[in-house]
Amino acid sequence: MNFSEQISELLKKIYHEKLVARIAVDKFIRNLNINSKQRKEILDFIYDCIRFIGFVKNHDFKITKEQLDEIKNNLILDESSFVNILGFNEEISKLILDSIPIDDFSLFLERAPLTIRANMIKTTREKLLIEFENKFKKYKTITTQFSPYGLTVDSHINVRVMEKFKKGFFEIQDEASQLITFLLPIIPGNNILDICAGTGGKSLAIASHFYNSINIEAFDIDKNRLQKLAKRSKIADAKIKIIKKPKTNFYDAVLIDAPCSGLGTLRRDVDLNIRTTPRSLKKVLNLQRTIFNKAVESAKNGGYIIYVTCSFLKEENEKQVEYFLENHKNIKLINISNILTDNHFNTFIHNQFFKTSPKINGMDSFFGAVFQKTH
Ligand SMILES: C[S@@+](CC[C@H](N)C(=O)[O-])C[C@H]1O[C@@H](n2cnc3c(N)ncnc32)[C@H](O)[C@@H]1O
User: Fold this and answer.
1) Is the dihedral of CA 38, 39, 42, 47 positive or negative?
2) What pLDDT, in 10s, does the model give residues 284-296?
3) Most buried residue, 98, 158, 261, 291, by most Cβ within 10 Å?
4) 225 lines ligand 1 (CB under 6 A)
5) Regarding the domain delimited by 114-174, which CATH topology (the fold level of the hierarchy) does it fall under?
6) For the chain, domain boundaries
7) Does domain 177-373 have CATH number 3.40.50.12780?
8) pLDDT tens-place string over residues 321-331
9) Which segments are annotated as binding site for S-adenosyl-L-methionine?
10) CA 242 / ligand 1 centre spacing (Å)
């Protein structure tokens, strides 16, 4: 099999078997005997093929870079190109078009910036900036505009091999994700439950933001992820307690970083066009409702529930909020403008909610709503 045939086979597999592209592509590229420049070119090509999988599939997964460039440069976004060129499911395409302005969507077809978050328990952003500037003179490192902890780093820099990364001085984290810490109406000494803690992205950010002054309890259904969280928090010196079962009527705040379609991170998870189906969406919608019930139970009276998704779909956001309010008579919605009181954050306040998008400083698309348990 020649090289283009191998890529074609890989794309077919990713499409038909709904493989997680990142894992399948990593495995594929690892077995090739190529230099780093070739590696980058091939990766860019494969990921672009996945972004435009509808078109690639219609060409029996055999496509040249020139064909791909032509379609990219002449793309007109409408309902038909969502299905035929981008390869989204028809129903999902409609939901996307109903959720965000069509012109904004083109930004999701670009590469996301590489952003890191300074771990304030161990360092400061300023110190890290100096380190990056001295170490990588030919690349530009810039401070993020909204998160006081972020640096946008040139994607050629392999931050994972850096000693400071291995020792927990910084984490790789999108700016929008870093900002979630500002949605928490809590003060030092409070108890917070991170009910979907996963490998700890948000818990670590909270510990850093509050300089370890909050009692953070981390829960997740996936024990493997929690094991990773345990390792990361040790390295980061972050005070996070992993728990087997959340307490009832106890926490000052419960953060739900909900399992979701993830469409707001489409620039990184480019295969979501293939993997997002009405069925997968229904599954996460149900899960979000179940977890919300648990979160309300866990919060104390007067405590807060912070619901976050990395999706822009109304179904997972505004419509889900309506559902929560209808089904829980003991909660009220808090206008996010009462929490994000610093004018600096005005741009993220949409109606009563927190919203980010690649339009603002190249961030992922996040949604946040805050509720208070009244009784
Ligand atoms: C968006 S991810 C969380 C990411 C994590 N908070 C971070 O910042 O790295 C959603 C998480 O919800 C977890 N999850 C799914 N169903 C759950 C449930 N019923 N209860 C608690 N966690 C659940 C998944 O295992 C996954 O780790």
Assistant:
1) negative
2) 999 999 999 999 9
3) 261
4) yes
5) Alpha-Beta Plaits (3.30.70)
6) 3-109, 114-174, 177-373
7) no
8) 999 999 999 99
9) 220, 257
10) 13
